[in-house]
Batch of 3 targets.
Target 1
Amino acid sequence: MPIRCPWVSADPIYIDYHDKEWGRPVHDDRTLFEFLILEGAQAGLSWLTVLKKRENYRRRFHNFEIAKVAAMTDTDLADALFDEGIIRNRLKIASARRNARASLTLIEEFGSLDNYFWGWTEGKTIVTSPRPKSLGDYAATPPLSDAISNDLKKRGFNFVGSTIIYAYLQATGIVDDHSHDCFLSKAHSNRPLNL
C-alpha cells in the first residue's frame, strides 16, 4: 500500500481524490471555477463532506459552466436551499452566482481563469520545499494566498479568504504540497519556487 499525505483518511473517496486529482495542475476554466466554488462551500466543514456532494453540486450548478451559473435567477438560488444533496447555506449558494459573475469579468480582463491564477506563479507549479512531514507542517495562509485572496475580494468575489485560496491552490496544482514521503511527491519534476 503506497504512503500518502497525512491528511488522507481511509475513505475511498478521499484516497481517489488524493491519488487522481489533488496537486495535479488544472488549466481548464470550468474545473478551476468548480474548485473555487467547492472550496468556498467547504468553509467550516470537512473536504470529505464536499467531495461526497460534488456530483450534486455539478447537477445543481450546471456542471459549473460559468456563464450558466452567472445567469442563475434568484428563484434558482432559492430552490437550491431545498436541495439536500448540497450544503444548504444561503450565503454559500448565493456566492456561486456572485463568483461566476466576477469570474466572467476576470476572464474579460485576463482571457481566462487559467491565465489569471497561473499568472501568479508565471505558469509554474510551486513545489513546497522542504516538503511537509506532518499535518502541522502545512501552511494555512502563506503570502501567495494572502495576495490572491485580497485581489479576488477587490474584484467582487466572496468566500475567498486566504485559507480557502491556499486550499484551492493545492487542489488545482498551482502549489504541490504532497508530503515528503507521499508516493506522489516524487512524481513531479517542477523546480521549487518560493512561496
Note: The radius of gyration is 16 Å.
Target 2
Amino acid sequence: MVNEIYDYTKEHMDKSLEALKRDFSTLRTGKVTTNIVDNIKVNYYGNPTPLNQIGNVIALDAVTIAISPWEKNMLSAVSKAIQEANIGVNPNSDGDMIKLFFPPMTVEQRGEIVKQAKAMGEKAKVAIRNIRKDSNDKIKKLEKDKELSEDESKKAHDEIQKITDDHVTKIDELLKVKEDDILKV
C-alpha cells in the first residue's frame, strides 16, 4: 500500500515536470523555435484548432518562422489568430504563406521572459507540494486506520519528502538551464 503511494507520488510529480518542460518550450529564447506558436488556436470551420494541425510550421532561420496553411483560404484566419495570440510579432502574408519575423530580443524582453520562466517554475513547485500533501494525507489515513504503525508512517513521510525534494531540485535545474538559454545572446 505504501509503495503504491510512492509510485503515485513519483508519477504525478514526473507529470508536473513534463508540464513544466512543455511550458518552457513556448518561451522565446535567442533563437526562435516553432514551439512559440504551439498554443495558438485557429478558427478552422468553427473549431479552435492548433496552428500546426492546419498547415506546416517551420523555422526558416534564427529569427523567422514560416507558416504554410494547407488550404490557402485559411491565410486570413491564421493571421488573425497570430495577432490575437499577441506573441510580439505581426504576421506577413505573401498570398502563399505567412512569415513571422522576430526582432532580436532586448535586455528588457529577456528579463520579462526570465520572469515568466520563474513563474512557471513556481507553479510547478506548487503542483509538487500539492501532490506531496495528497500523499501525506493518504499516509496519515493509513496510520489512523491502524494499517501503518507510527514508525512506518514517519518513514513514509520521510520518503515522500525525499521524492519531493528530488523533484524540486529538478525544477530548479530546469529553470537554471532555461534562464541561461534566454539570457544567452
Note: The two ends are 51 Å apart (CA to CA).
Target 3
Amino acid sequence: MQTLTKQLIELKLANRVFTDAQLERVIEGSKQRRYHLVNRAIKAGELLRLRRGSYLLAEPFRNHPVHPFALAQAFAPGSYVSYETALAHHGWIPEAVYTTTSVTPGRKSLEYQHGSFGHFSFHPLAIQPGYFLELVDREQSRKQSMLVAKPIRALMDLVCLRKVEWQGVEWLDESLRIDYESLRQVTGADIRTLKLVYKHKRVIRFLDLLARELGND
C-alpha cells in the first residue's frame, strides 16, 4: 500500500473526494513531495484522478462505492443533479438514465467522461439571482452528501433547457412518460416558487398552464 493511501485511510478520508488544497493540509513536506506521493499512488492504481486537482481513492480502499451524484458535485462544485437524472431518481420517468446531468451555476456547459464512473454533463440555465437552489434537496447516501432537484424542479429545468412550449399534459406523458398521478403531487406553492426562479417568459407560461391543468392556479 502506498504511503499516501495509508495516510488517507488513517485520517478517515478514504470515502471522500479531495482536492490538491486538501492534500496540502494533510501531507507534510514540500509541494514536490506531495506531487511524487500522488503520482505514485495513481500509478499503483490506488488513487484515481477525477479531473485536474481532484482525486478519489480506488474502490478496494473505500468502505463503500462512490455515488455518482456525489461525484457530480466534485466535478462541478456548486452544481445540483437535475433534468432526466433527477426525474428517474424520483421515479417520475421509467427509463434508465446513463448520464448524470446537473445544473451548473457557471455559464458554460461541461462534459466529463471518466473510465471508471461514466458520463457527466452540466448545463447552465437562466435563473434569477438568489433562486438557484429553490426546490433542491440535500440528500445523504452512506455519508455522501449531494444536491438533487425535487421532481417538479427537475422537470422545469428540463423545460427551460430544451425551450419547450406548453403542449398539454399529453406531451409530458408521450415525450417523457410522466404519469399524471405524479404531476398531481405538485402543489400551488411549488408553482408559485418556481415562477420566481426562471427568467424566460416561456417557462413562466408553462408553469401557469400546468397550474391551471392541475387546478393549482
Note: DSSP finds ten helices and nine strands in the chain.
